[in-house]
Design brief:
Chain lengths: ~350, ~425
């Protein structure tokens, strides 16, 4: 079988397998909210006139709003003389494990948690803020340990905007690495590693993120746009940053095919003429050795060894030999130049 | 050989399907890209027409008899070249087919997730691991009294399953085996302290031996202070140190300040001959402000780059205005001045959603102080139009054109078909 066809067939099978075995798609989009709560609150209609039975509900249920309008009510007919308007049902998927039965008994009023009510025109009904929960429940330990599941059904599926010390605002792109080092399990409460892989699997990824998602114009992709033209400048500004994701082989793989590598000739050689470059290269290497490694990191076969082997020009920075004994044969890298 | 690898990997994805069917929640993302572009090949411009298929599947709460919780994650891709010129630069796949795995791991939890075991291809971020992408295993234990331990071991990932270890590695962890871990102690909501170690071996020789410490302090829910230090035992020197503070003053204003110290040579593998040639240091000191003003969002930041060769600023500002819930317009300005070169960058972008259509525009210009490849300016513009087909499917086309130091004229076209959907079999536990 043609290998190209095999590949496409395997891909199609994988995708079809997943689609066929998945059980149920997410709910369809809902129309805007039609019910004006404020009108009814102002008219002092008690919540349980419409939400009868809520005090017995032990869970939030799919498609159930816990609304049981009375068949005939004087309160309704006082305003709705020509009958209570019928409202289209809204699809509803609960994102919390929650028992109204437990909470109604202890709350002073519905508004204690439902600080904002659904009003006409809203895209979706507002839910009580988490501060309404933590006003009574101390979840400090759960929060710190990212144990969200007891209350939140699935934060990966129903993501919430992170708040307070986990907010992703402003300079988060620069800050997130430091946070993740100490709190990887917290990140994992909302993100599986496919999110990280969008940028952090540079060894295996085939394309830059902005090539895959050109429509995400607000995203902070670090290599956005004409990165290739400015990559040497950015590498000089923060060489260590490149080496967090890219090894020497990554640089060489592109430089070789572009003929910008050892042995390249003419304008493809990134260095000036040897008479100019040789006196300069030591200072350049001291300043940004990571750039040198992009092409010249071949271990014992590196071009540097030609002149800088033991007995040649000392390549080490000042003070290096005070910390590292040249007779130390335990480090293979030393043995490349310093023979016993 | 690589073709067989690709087919085997994708067949494995198909075999996972029965397990996915027993999961409570399955998230699927499939993106098919057809790209037509030009690139340089040995000094000549060549036309490339690759087609990519990228697939991510995440299944959570998979019912099984062995663990309380089980998660399967797969992120993979395959590509075929429809043109005659090999499109992928490099040693590893210059033919017409390529495929690889970004992630493929199984994660199981026991005792209310106090014990979590991960197995497969994953990223490890804990402590001094430096976000290593590895084939191996990870174990996380939540112990009493706020203590925790995480351990990992495996082989750093090689692209297309080729060069593992050696200084030719594309993985920055240039070794064929790595292990490490982090011990932590937490005072919930206030303090998280960690000590970590990372060890890398390349064909039996040590390539990295680092120890580190990290701390996260949250004196209030709106203030987070993070500190980190990474010490190289082989170089007997601090490789990296950083400290940052973020403070959310209100819903409107967030402030952050950070300091970073690095020795770039110690980010090279320490079996590389080059790390012994330099001990130059870099320091960054900066501050940022974020303002959320109704339909406006403004970010501004200043960082001073301090190097042994000289200092320079990196300055940036961005404003985004969302006139409606379905549209946004933004502008960015950036300035970088380092001894090697400097540039000014201006960017404008916008997005408009009308019913099922979404259009975006992105214009970006860089003006360099010293010529890059003989040119002092780079301009690139991208226009995209997308259409939501429904049921998680969407289609988009994008065109990019410009004049850059790399191309005297550039024009790329991309067509994309994407599928993103989450399936669930049980809504409430």
């Amino acid at each position: 079988m043609n290998p190209r066809l095999s590949l496409l067939a395997a891909l199609a099978l994988a995708a079809a397998g997943c689609a066929a075995k998945a059980n149920k798609p997410e709910s369809a989009e809902n129309p805007p909210v039609a019910f004006p709560h404020s009108t009814h609150v102002d008219a002092e209609i008690s919540c349980n006139v419409c939400h009868a039975g809520i005090e017995k509900a032990t869970s939030l249920e799919v498609g159930k709003r816990h609304i049981q309008l009375p068949a005939k009510s004087e309160q309704c007919e006082a305003c709705h003389s020509d009958g209570v308007p019928k409202l289209a049902a809204r699809a509803f998927e609960p994102t919390l494990t929650f028992s109204h039965a437990t909470h109604v008994l202890k709350a002073k009023s519905c508004q204690q948690c439902h600080v904002e009510l659904a009003e006409q025109g809203m895209a979706k009904p507002p839910v009580p803020p988490m501060s309404a929960c933590t006003a009574c429940h101390n979840h400090k330990k759960d929060y710190a340990e990212a144990r969200c599941q007891p209350c939140h059904v699935d934060l990966k599926r129903f993501p919430l905007k992170p708040v307070s010390d986990f907010a992703h605002q402003g300079n988060f792109l620069k800050q997130h690495g430091g946070m993740a080092r100490a709190s990887a399990k917290t990140c994992a409460a909302c993100h599986d590693q496919t999110k990280c892989a969008e940028c952090h699997t540079a060894t295996t990824n085939p394309l830059k993120a902005d090539q895959i998602w050109p429509e995400k114009v607000e995203s902070d992709f670090i290599h956005r746009g004409d990165w290739i033209s400015r990559h040497t400048i950015e590498a000089a500004a923060d060489p260590a940053s490149c080496r967090r994701c890219h090894g020497s082989g990554f640089c060489r793989s592109c430089h070789e095919i572009q003929n910008i590598a050892p042995g390249a000739t003419g304008v493809r050689n990134p260095h000036p003429a040897p008479s100019v470059w040789i006196p300069q290269h030591g200072a350049a290497a001291r300043a940004n050795i990571v750039s040198c490694a992009a092409c010249h990191d071949q271990g014992a076969a590196a071009v540097c060894i030609t002149c800088h082997s033991s007995g040649g020009v000392n390549p080490h920075p000042p003070g290096f030999l005070s910390k590292h004994d040249s007779g130390d044969q335990s480090k293979p890298v030393c043995r490349i130049c310093h023979h016993p | 050989m690589r073709t067989r690898h690709a087919i085997a990997l994708l067949a494995a994805a198909e075999l996972l399907a029965p397990a996915l069917a027993r999961a409570d929640v399955v998230s699927v993302s499939s993106t098919t890209l057809l790209n037509a572009r030009q690139d340089w090949r040995n000094g000549e411009l060549a036309s490339l027409v690759p087609v990519y298929e990228m697939l991510s599947i995440s299944a959570r709460d998979v019912k099984n008899p062995l663990s309380e919780s089980l998660e399967l994650v797969l992120s993979t891709w395959g590509a075929a070249n429809l043109g005659d010129t090999p499109w992928w630069s490099g040693y590893t796949s210059s033919g017409s087919l390529a495929a690889d795995l970004n992630l493929a791991y199984v994660r199981a939890g026991w005792a209310n997730r106090a014990v979590v075991l991960s197995l497969g291809r994953m990223n490890v971020v804990d402590g001094v691991a430096r976000m290593v992408q590895l084939d191996g295993l990870g174990l996380a234990l939540r112990l009493p009294a706020g203590f925790g331990v995480s351990l990992y071991a495996g082989s750093p990932v090689a692209p297309r399953f080729s060069f593992r270890g050696t200084t030719y590695a594309s993985n920055p962890i240039a070794g064929d085996f790595t292990t490490g871990g982090r011990v932590s102690w937490m005072l919930p909501g206030v303090l998280d302290l960690g000590a970590s170690v990372s060890w890398v071996a390349d064909h039996g020789d040590a390539a990295r031996k680092d120890v580190g410490a990290d701390v996260r302090i949250t004196p209030t829910r709106t203030l987070a202070i993070v500190g980190y230090a990474d010490y190289s035992l082989m170089a007997e020197a601090l490789a990296e140190g950083s400290a940052s503070a973020t403070w959310q003053l209100s819903r409107v204003v967030s402030l952050s300040a950070d300091y970073k110290y690095t020795v770039p040579a110690l980010f090279l593998s320490q079996n590389s001959i080059l790390w012994v040639f330099s001990d130059s240091t870099r320091k960054d000191v900066g501050a940022n402000v974020h303002l959320a003003l109704g339909r406006w969002a403004v970010d501004a930041g200043y960082t001073e780059l301090l190097t042994d060769e000289g200092n320079g600023p990196r300055v940036g500002a961005r404003a985004t205005w969302r006139p409606t819930n379905h549209s946004s317009v933004g502008a960015e300005l950036a300035y970088l001045d380092i001894p090697e070169n400097k540039y000014i960058n201006g960017r404008v972008f916008g997005a408009l959603e009308v019913k099922r259509f979404t259009a975006t525009l992105d214009l970006q210009d860089y003006s360099f102080d010293k010529p890059v490849n003989g040119e002092k300016n780079s301009f690139l513009g991208t226009l995209s139009v997308g259409y939501a087909l429904g049921s998680g499917w969407s289609a988009a086309v994008a065109g990019t054109g410009g004049v850059t130091p790399y191309f005297s004229q550039r024009f790329d076209v991309l067509a994309k078909l994407a599928y993103n959907q989450t399936y669930s079999s049980r809504e409430v536990r």
